[in-house]
Structures are given as C-alpha cells and as structure tokens.
Amino acid sequence: MMLFLAVVVIASGSDIAADISHGASALHLFQEAIVLLIALIFLCWLIIDSVLKRAQIRRLNSELEQVKTMPMPDSETVLAARHQLRQAITEQFDTWQLTNSEKDVGQMLLKGYSLKEVAALRGTAEKTIRQQASSIYHKAGLPGRHAFSAWFIEDLL
Question: What domain of life does the UniProt record list for this protein's source (predicted)?
C-alpha cells in the first residue's frame, strides 16, 4: 500500500509539473493537487503507523525477554505450584481441543497481554487474534476473557 501511494505521489507531482509547463487550467491543477495532497497524507500516516507498530513490537519483545529472565522463586512450594498450574493449563487446552495457535494465544491471554499486544508479538492481525480468542472461549464454553482467566485461578484464591 505504501508503494502504491508513493507511486501516486510521484506520478501526481510529475503530472502537475507537466501540466504547469503546458498551461493547464487552474481548476485542473487544483484537482490534481488535491489528489496529491490526499495521497501524501495517507502515505505519511502509513509510515508513521508502521514506525509506531515496530516500536511497540520491540517494546513488547523487550518486556517478554525481561519476564523470561526474571529470577524464579526459591520456594519449592511455589515452583511446584507453578509447574502444576502450567501442566493443568496444558491438559485443559488439550481437553478443549485447542489448536497450537489457540494454545499460544490462550497462554498469552492468561499472562495478561491484550489482543493488540498478542497480535504484535505473534506478527498477525488483531482481527485474527480476536477470532482465535473467540474460538477458545467457544470451545471452553465460556462467555469471554475474564471467565477464561477465572476458570484457571478461581479455586486457587
């Protein structure tokens, strides 16, 4: 899309320059200038959006790496409980017959990532993650994200 808009900007600019040298009417030049301006605005918007999304992905990956390098608790009880919870989640995901992608999304949702963050980390569209999350809730027979998370921790508290 950016390439297409860049071509439109370049072509429009060249056409306006040629029209000026051929003495085109002011109305025609104005119309072409509007097309150029709109294409330029959209191109700038796409570039800025792309830069912001890349920065967000870098930030999320950095946060994920920080979490991975956090010191594990020393308590054997806490370590055992974490292992058992991880195992219970894996078994329940298998019982619900989640796909591998749904399992990955489900784990990230349980860790507290937003749909937008999950999409950025997985390099997929947010709409895809939203559909996978809906599929998870449907297969689990749960109404939504809060019930999904509560299903695993309700009895622990």
Answer: Bacteria
